[in-house]
Amino acid sequence: MKKLKPQTADWAQIERYLTSAERKLVSAHKILAFDEEACLQQAYESMLRAALGFMFSHGFRARSQPGHHIAIIEFVKSKMGTPHSGLLTLFDRLRRKRNLALYDDTGFVSNQEAQEALDAARRFLEVIRADVSARKP
Fold first, then answer.
1. Choices 1.10.287.110, 1.20.120.330, 3.40.50.1370, 3.20.20.300: CATH for 4-135
2. Beta bridge partners of 62
3. Is the Cα torsion angle 59, 85, 95, 22 positive or negative in sign?
4. Region for 12 from its dihedrals, namely left if φ exceeds 0, alpha if ψ lies in -120 to 50, beta otherwise
5. What pLDDT does residue 116 have?
6. DSSP E strands: which ranges in 7-117?
7. Predicted structure pTM score
């Protein structure tokens, strides 16, 4: 089964997704003071929202099926290429850590991991925002 389906680029929708990603990052910063796990989850969701906006800007969306977060990350990797491979590796690592924290009691999140998630999400949003802005008609 195909992982992606075409979607007409709706620049207002894309902007809403990017703005939502930025709000989630602000929330993640605030949450860090009292809940590292929730901070990491919000940082990951921020990256996911930005990735969805990026995907929409290329005229695609992920099908709702098991593994669709992986499909989103793979799509972004295919479009962004080597210069951002380290950042995309962190994105995927956050996906796996979030799943552990959510579904397994071995998924403890340290303050350092939460801080790294915030930094990765901030850098990811900067890259996505710049890319989308450069292509926006």
1. 1.20.120.330
2. 4
3. negative
4. alpha
5. 94
6. 60-62
7. 0.91
